[in-house]
Amino acid sequence: MKVSVDVAVVGGGAAGMAAAKAAAEAGAKTLLLEREERLGGVLDQCIHPGFGLHRYREELTGPEFAFRLLSELERTKAEVVTGATVLAVRPGPELLVASEKGLIKVQARALVWAAGARERPFGPLLIPGTRPAGIFTAGLAQKLVNIHGLLPGKRALILGSGDIGLIMARRLHLEGIEVVGVAEIKPFPGGLLRNVVQCLEDFGIPLFLRHTVAKIHGHKRLSGVTIMEVDEQGQPIPDTEKFFALDTLVLSVGLIPEVRPLEPFFPQGVMVNNLFQSAVPWIFFAGNALTVFDLVDTVARIGEEAGRNAARYAQEKPPKPKAVPLRKGQNVSVLVPHEVIPGEPAHLFLRVPRPLSRATIRVADVYAKNQVSLRPAEMVEIALPPEATAELAQLPQAEVEVIPA
Amino acid sequence: MRIAIIGAGVVGSLIARELSRYEAEILLFDREEEVGLGVTKANSGIVHAGFHDEPGTLRARFCVLGNALYPGLAEELGFSFRQTGALALAFDAEEKKTLNRLREWGEANGVPGLKLLSKEEVLAQEPEVNPAVRAGLFAPTVGVTAPWEVAQAAAENAQENGAELHLGEEVLGIEIKHGRVQALRTQKGCYWVDAIVNAAGLFADRISEMAGVPFPPLVPRRGEYILLDEPAGNLVRSVLFPTPNPITKGILVIPTVDGGLLLGPTAEDLSPTDKEATETTAQGISQVIRGAQKLVPKIPLTQALKTFAGLRPEPENGDFVVGPSNVRGFYQAGGMRSPGLTAAPAIAQFLAHEVIAPDLALKKKSTFKPKRERIPHAAELSEEEWEKLIREDPRWGRIVCFCNTVTEAEVVEAIRRGARTLDGVKFRTRAGFGRCQGSFCTTKIMAILARELSFGPEKITLRGPGSELILGKVRP
Question: CB distance A132–B307 less than 8 Å?
């Protein structure tokens, strides 16, 4: 089966739905491919509130947010195929897609990759001990509880204080599972402050900062874990063992952008300009497949931008504009985009590696802004006006840095 | 004639398959819920050439014979096998001498094609090897396989030829009368049998004691491993060994049969009662890292997928225990330390055709079907072939495991062939073996298992009773 479109969007979560909607609104013939049976992505299992405050000026649950966005998408001419997994992306551009109707070859002029992220699993943590049943990533635990109505255990510890981990601590507690605590290897929580307060403190769930799981016990089903305090390098400190008898360990230790079929195109990693366009001019990125965002509202907005830009590329095939590379300076652990086009407005998204109470954010010497209370969990967005980006044109590269006050 | 085989690992399953060529009732028992979950599962997966073993040992004899059988057997039984060759590396003059001795051993054992390589030749062949290397011994006949696939394929083929598989049945007792095997007892019942083959891996000593046959004490030797994801598998072409010491072959760098890279194992002798101590340790893992980095300095540890440990049964005298015993009808296939996986097909042939069949006057049957088809893996087919399968059955178009591109049809077929647990599906289809380690596919596979086997999600286990995944339901 062969299909020819202007813009193919891969991934039917918030980023992909928004991208497909915007591309179709811009007049591009658009096809949205989703590997699951329905659209919504991870939003479907996020039944807690806290979504949509920016985009819809209302506090919505994940499924409600997805429904709103889906309604916007359905008003456009974008075509949607679910149960469709992208197996390969080839120059052409052509996508090879598996579906129960057969293999589909999608010829597209532009691609928006919005395939989301996967969870960092247990294995790469190299934690010593046995390998019993009862170890779940937070997203899997969330899917079991919220979609399938099944409980993974009776007594649990959460490793990692990412937002899904914090949300799951509360969720499991509310379902009658005893949550003995959340262990976090860093000296500060990985998730948003509001989640630390509303998910842990409000329910008396302890947060063990500077702690990690040092050993897994149990043969068939998990029987317990040993946690230990860690030093500055993250190495366990002898004689700090604490044993918890439990049947469930939930991991919230990070998300990794899902870009596998595109890896051959980007051996050095994915980099985008402020149009969300990559080094391969017909490939655009959106959402957590680019970098892990903190708010779905931002993801949807960026998705729309990427979709619009992809549509314009498909329709006009403009040459890829010259851009000035950005460099991560001090106290910047995450930064997108990776380059900006001089003379165009640009939004930069960055994260700091440690909490800073007061700091100045600088972009070369064309932009500076003072900010209070910067936290690693919260993405900082700065809007560079066209005059500022125009000034960058002369530079070989522009450093973005966060200077503590 | 009724013959029971205790242990459905590589050795027991291959013996069951060889015996299913005869007019006899074959019963294959394992205490686990799936085939090949004991010693077989956590293994280096190497089909050795036979230069590590002293001439005159059973190990040397069966290793060389077994190695020669693998390519044909892989074809016939449809399991993964790739001849990669191996390089043993020497880093000083003393080790160079040892390589010379290994070559002599190998030649005495009948290992074909052994070749001593200079430093330059080693580095030309394997550019990522530590440049401090002084020399290498190349063995072209070394290969890699997925040991659990060998056990599954052999057990399946034995079943196709009439053997009965009794999983989740632990042998609790053996009845001997007048110096002759009479029956065995499991928690599910008593079976009258004419012969028993002891292929019980780590528990071969206990099973032997049940029959009143002395057996050298088995020491569980723990081996810890780190498995790296696919791109890392391209780092080396051949299996890399350090120069071995008298205790162990050392920590290796192994390109796995499915494209990953396996590092390990350690060799730590445990107490003979510690037969379930399959936990990894902080020391073991760092030892694996150091050992692997000595051979290949640029090991990409960021691509680590998982760590695991296995126990290998180490007989006191260091050699296999294979053949008849002083109890009539009780046969040994135990003490399967390295190179047990390589030797298994040769041991199975020897025991079945040269020992048991003449002993029990078994007659060959004409209906034996040697060929077993592997479960097709859609992602390995041409687009035309895959398309055709989807037209016949849309489940071939539904991807369940995104990391390894496994379709629903493959999972259903794995269950039809005997998978009962998540591990059973994983070790047959590679669903859940990839970089997300099952965080996307677990609920899908649970749903397929529940549907195909008509039981509720609370019955689904990781690898048998006691390893349930679900312990309750949300509030109504």
Answer: no
Number of domains in chain A: 3
Evaluate whether ipTM surpasses 0.90. yes
CATH code at B210?
3.50.50.60
Please judge whether A122 and B306 are an interchain contact, meaning their C-beta atoms are less than 8 angstroms apart: yes
Across-strand partners of A400?
Answer: A328, A363
* Beta carbons within 8 Å of A387's beta carbon, 6+ residues apart: none
In A, residues 1-60, which contact B (CB 8 Å cutoff)?
Answer: 35
For residue B281, being part of any structural domain is answered with: yes
Partnered with residue A2 across adjacent β-strands are: A105
Give the number of domains in chain B. 3
**Which strand (E) or helix (H) includes residue A91?**
none
Express as a percent the part of chain B with pLDDT over 70.
Answer: 100
Please state the separation of Cα A47 from the chain's center in Å.
Answer: 18
pLDDT by residue (tens digit) across B301-341?
999 999 999 999 999 888 999 999 999 999 999 999 999 99
From the list A37, A76, A113, the residue with the least C-alpha distance to A290 is A113
**B464 in any annotated domain:** no
CA distance A100 to chain B (A): 4
Question: Could you say which of B354, B374, B394 is where a domain stops?
Answer: B374
Q: Does B96 touch chain A (CB under 8 A)?
A: no
Residue type, B88: A
* A7 and A113 in a common domain: yes
For B63, the domain range is 1-81+143-216+317-374
Do A28 and A77 touch, CB atoms closer than 8 A?
no
Q: Is residue B188 part of a domain?
A: yes
Reported as a single tens digit per residue, the pLDDT across A239-257 is 999 999 999 999 999 999 9
Asked about B48 being catalytic, the answer comes back as yes
Based on the fold, state whether residues B31 and B87 are members of the same structural domain: no
Question: For B397, which of A100, A153, A214 is closest by C-beta distance?
Answer: A100
Q: Are residues B308 and B228 in the same domain?
A: yes
Chain B window 300-319: which residues touch A at a Cβ cutoff of 8 Å?
A: 304-308
Distances (CA, A) of A261 to A85, A180, B226: 11, 40, 25
Task: With residue A14 as reference, give the H or E element that holds it.
Answer: helix A14-25
**Catalytic residue (choose from B48, B166, B178, B377):** B48
CA distance B405 to B235: 23
Whether residue A220 lies within 8 A of chain B, CB to CB, comes out as yes
